Amino acid sequence: xxxxxxxxxxxxxxxxxxxxxxxxxxxxxxxxxxxxxxxxxxxxxxxxxxxxxxxxxxxxxxxxxxxxxxxxxxxxxxxxxxxxxxxxxxxxxxxxxxxxxxxxxxxxxxxxxxxxxxxxxxxxxxxxxxxxxxxxxxxxxxxxxxxxxxxxxxxxxxxxxxxxxxxxxxxxxxxxxxxxxxxxxxxxxxxxxxxxxxxxxxxxxxxxxxxxxxxxxxxxxxxxxxxxxxxxxxxxxxxxxxxxxxxxxxxxxxxxxxxxxxxxxxxxxxxxxxxxxxxxxxxxxxxxxxxxxxxxxxxxxxxxxxxxxxxxxxxxxxxxxxxxxxxxxxxxxxxxxxxxxxx
Length: 343
Fold this sequence. Notes:
Elements: H1 5-18, H2 24-36, H3 40-49, H4 53-66, H5 84-99, H6 104-108, E1 110-113, E2 116-119, H7 131-147, E3 154-158, H8 164-172, E4 177-182, H9 185-202, E5 206-210, E6 224-229, H10 243-248, H11 251-254, H12 263-275, E7 276-285, H13 291-301, E8 304-311, E9 317-324
Parallel strand pairs: 3-4, 3-6, 4-5, 6-7
Antiparallel strand pairs: 1-2, 7-9, 8-9
């Protein structure tokens, strides 16, 4: 493997491209940045300038010293303790795995979601960019609730997985009381790690519960301002084409059961109807081909109004949005109605 960053990135990207990776150069840059311990921007700059891999290691050592963390280097701190050869060996191992379609996020150990870096790995669904817009709709509603004078709006994230949506709400709307529910043991463990890391970094709190989204949090019935969910919704005959998804995302996080894939979402929707206060907002992600079915599902559960489909950032219909119906007011007595007459 060449030591020149430009040539290394070019040749490795060509290999990943042949393996069917959609973003081969970006993946190589991120993997090299990961093993070298530098931001991706350093790799891009080194490639443009024609620098060797060792330049990245010196940059990493300098960054560690400037940041006050453990020095990486020899006794005088000028030569990285990790050699370029070791970095290239590690990169080769990761490139082999990526060419076999192991998810990039599993290899680097994190996945970006909005402004967060979440730890992920085998056993948890890797958060997707399209779900960021689902979180945005929920966050916008919570901000409107705050603007109306609520000091601690209540938000519930059902089927939280890695905790992505719940943690986005908790960090972007300080003061919101955020609850998250996850049944799967492995996914719940990842969510716990992310909640702890986020709390340590920002002070944001998510009340995480391991339980069935359909029956959890009964103590919050009728009091929630927003219920949001990215539940499993893939129909049983719609096997994902990408090996990263089909082979590495947990099946329990993918398949929504039932012929239409909406059996789990139906249970989540019934839970949302139970949890939401009148006028509260429900937001649920679905596949773009399920837009009409998802609206019909919400209508069939009952108790919702203003049911609509919202698009993701690419313009695809990817979520159903609805409000918990408010009680109808008693009509005014009609003139001449006996109840309007004095005795």
